[in-house]
């Protein structure tokens, strides 16, 4: 199958942007899901997948002509494994879609278990090859699919989750540095654990000392809370998800640390809190695909910062995150700045942290940069 671009539309592909939108396609020759991409003059550009349904018509898998078979996937996964060899955990993102030249595919490893997300129609067709590769290359205890998200509809696919291979163990236990965490791969958020906050958990642990009061908003299964409690901090975690709070409490016990976890609305909690805190962590789940949703997230960042700055001690820290590429670093800084001036507290920005190495950011693909965490310190 061959896909030909309209004149002038080849530049971004030559600069390693991995998507071609449907209105950029001039014509198609042949049928199938694996296709070669050509410019308007017939010059080969890339190999990839073609979707008859999505507004993303073509997704790059390679910049060479090659077969997309089990050997192809083995090679890709071996390459991605090498990039992740120094991660201090047995749980990490093995394949991050476009960033690992596996567009439409997410693979998260939890020890001997794997959880996959299939995000495009062509990758759904290729899923059996992916599964066979995982089984032959890694001998997994099980492979579970978590493709239960609305974005599948844009690809003409139904939401799906279920066991693909092996015997399911849930929840399972992973290791991260000296910690252990229970992970619910069936009902948990994302694929079960916030793998992308691994480096930030260590970062915030180094912000606290024994006796510090730490508030962990949207604590989920207690990752940040456990790290801070390990330093002797007095931690309160808040989440509206009952299962998340249950896991957080179990994870505190699993790591022999003390932390209080509250089932409730994080916005209400910070607004009504009468305490002064040394550190407030705010990691709200957020996906913004429309202008209205983006404005809602920007408002949420401002509101969290606004109330946090009122409840922080002088010298205290706010560590606030956004997990959508729709919100830029500049927009985050602006919202935090506005909140600080609204409550008349001077701050400095000490750090802007991005996603870790198992979620690689391609500068030629802005959509791959989604996680931004801002560390602000109250100085007055």
TrEMBL record:
InterPro entries associated with the record: PUA, PUA-like_sf, PUA_sf, RlmI-like_PUA, SAM-dependent_MTases_sf, Small_mtfrase_dom
rRNA processing is among the record's keywords: yes
Compartments, record wording: Cytoplasm
GO biological process: rRNA base methylation
Swiss-Prot/TrEMBL keywords: Cytoplasm, Methyltransferase, RNA-binding, rRNA processing, S-adenosyl-L-methionine, Transferase
Gene Ontology molecular function: RNA binding; rRNA (cytosine-C5-)-methyltransferase activity
Domain PUA: 1-82
GO cellular component: a single term: cytosol
CDD domains tied to this protein: AdoMet_MTases, PUA_RlmI, RlmI_M_like
PANTHER family per UniProt: RIBOSOMAL RNA LARGE SUBUNIT METHYLTRANSFERASE, S-ADENOSYLMETHIONINE-DEPENDENT METHYLTRANSFERASE DOMAIN-CONTAINING PROTEIN
Similarity comment: Belongs to the methyltransferase superfamily. RlmI family.
Descriptive protein name: PUA domain-containing protein
Organism encoding this protein: Aquifex aeolicus (strain VF5)
